Amino acid sequence: MTVKRALTGLAACSAAVVLSITVAPTAQAAGEARSRPAPVANPAAAPDPAPGSALQGRFWIYGGHNFTGNEYSFGDTDQWFRNNNWHGSTASVDNGASSAANLTNRDGFLWTIGSEAGTACTGDYVHLEPNTSRSNLAPWNNTASCLVLTGP
Hints:
The chain has one helix and seven strands, in the order H-E-E-E-E-E-E-E. By secondary structure, it is mainly β. The protein has a four-stranded antiparallel β-sheet with strand order 2-1-3-6, covered by helices on one side. A three-stranded antiparallel β-sheet has the order 5-4-7, with no helix packed on it.
C-alpha cells in the first residue's frame, strides 16, 4: 500500500520517529447532512515556524479513495497545483485528490483555490493535523488546488 511505502521511507530517515495515522470514518448515516470542517484559526495568517523547527516528513495526496490510484508528495507548502503532475504521469494533480496522508510535523490545509502567483489559497479547505490521514476527502473530492503547511 502506498501509505505503508511512505511510512517505510520516512522511518528509514529516522529510526526514532513513531507515527500514528488515524483514518477518519467516512460512513454517513442515511439523511445525515455533511458540513464544512470546524473552523480553524486562519492558516494563511499563521506565524512562520520557529527557527530550528524544520519541516519533517511529506504530505501525500492520492487520486483514489483509500490511498489508491495516482500519488504525489509535497515537501512544503504549494499554492499552485497546476504545475505538479502525479508521480510517473503527465496528468496534473490539480483538482484530482480523493484521499490524503499528512505525514509531516505540521498542520496541513488542502484549499480548493490556488494562486498562480503562489501568494494565497482561498475557498473551502480540509484540515489534516500532523500524522493523520483521510481515506476520503468528501465532500471536497477532486477540488484541491493548494496546500498550506503551518505550525512548529
